[in-house]
Automatic annotation (TrEMBL):
CDD domains: ExoIII-like_AP-endo. Residues 4-255 form the Endonuclease/exonuclease/phosphatase domain. The record marks 154 as: Transition state stabilizer. PANTHER family: EXODEOXYRIBONUCLEASE III. This is Exodeoxyribonuclease III.
Length: 264
DNA sequence: ATGGTAGATGCTCTA
């Protein structure tokens, strides 16, 4: 199975880029974040024509939105929390029935958290921390097995996940309270397989701001997008690639796709 | 220390 995750930053605007991505990489399953499309306007026919008969999505007007596109059939996950009681379309999940057993796939879009890393001064930062705590509580109460969790988690946890650890220590996405919470969530039962593929002492980014004149030259990136797997699935993990060149496509997202190849 | 860009929306928010 070739699994791909991408914060597409508007599905409707970047349908041509999605078509190019599918044509070049042939993913079996695509997890999208920031689709920015309300469910009644979801481009279902266009997505089916790309070769994905099985589609699950949750979107809203203007912001957020997640979608899972698949060549393989699945069952959508039900009975998940309405995270922070906001109904804000940041998570969906599905279960694939494979020959060796079921595999659960989660697609998350964690709140970005605004600019000020202080929960007293910034409601968005408080929301981000609360979301992480709630996710940690949920996965602690319901330990994951045969599960994959992907998405834009909006946190770069390791020193080499940002262009300058020192300069970003107090910048939302790399602050200690966020990193502690992301690690606590992961420790409910997941392995960071991107860092199995690329050693932790090597730089690894998936996002470069739009606000740089030359993103490649300045290379002020962050690893905000993640692929986690439970230990029982890690033996099936084969390889991972960050499609950095997609940042130079015509009208790019500020995030690039990440691919994982799995032996099932 | 500051401001830089992008998308959806509709006279501004989120990232």
């Amino acid at each position: 199975m070739r699994l791909l995750t991408w914060n597409i930053n508007s599905l409707r605007l970047r349908l041509p880029l999605l078509a190019r991505l599918v044509d070049e990489e042939h993913p079996d399953v695509v997890c999208l974040q920031e689709t920015k499309v309300p469910d009644p306007l979801f481009p279902l026919d266009a997505v089916r024509k790309l070769g994905f008969p099985h589609v699950h999505f949750a979107g809203m007007k203007g912001y957020n939105g997640v979608a899972i596109l698949s060549r393989l059939p699945f069952t959508p996950l039900a009975d998940f929390p309405d995270w922070c009681a906001r109904k804000d379309c940041r998570h969906i999940g599905v279960v694939f029935t494979l020959p060796d057993g079921p595999v659960t796939l989660h697609d998350f879009y964690v709140p970005a958290g605004g600019d000020i890393p202080d929960r007293e001064l910034n409601d968005k930062f408080a929301h981000k921390l609360d979301f992480l705590d709630e996710a940690t509580r949920w996965f602690t109460a319901t330990p994951p097995a045969r599960s994959i969790l992907v998405g834009d988690l909006n946190i770069a946890p390791l020193e080499q996940d940002v262009w300058s650890h020192r300069q970003l220590l107090n910048v939302v996405s790399h602050t200690p309270p966020e990193v502690e919470r992301l690690n606590a969530w992961m420790k409910t039962g997941f392995v960071d397989v991107m860092r199995r593929a690329v050693p932790p002492d090597e730089k690894l980014y998936t996002w470069w701001s739009y606000r740089n004149r030359d993103w490649r030259a300045s290379d002020r990136g962050r690893r905000l997008d993640h692929i986690w797997m439970t230990p029982d699935l890690v033996p099936a993990f084969r390889s991972m690639r960050v499609l950095k060149d997609a940042r130079d496509w015509d009208g790019p997202s500020d995030h690039v796709p990440v691919i994982a190849d799995l032996a099932f």
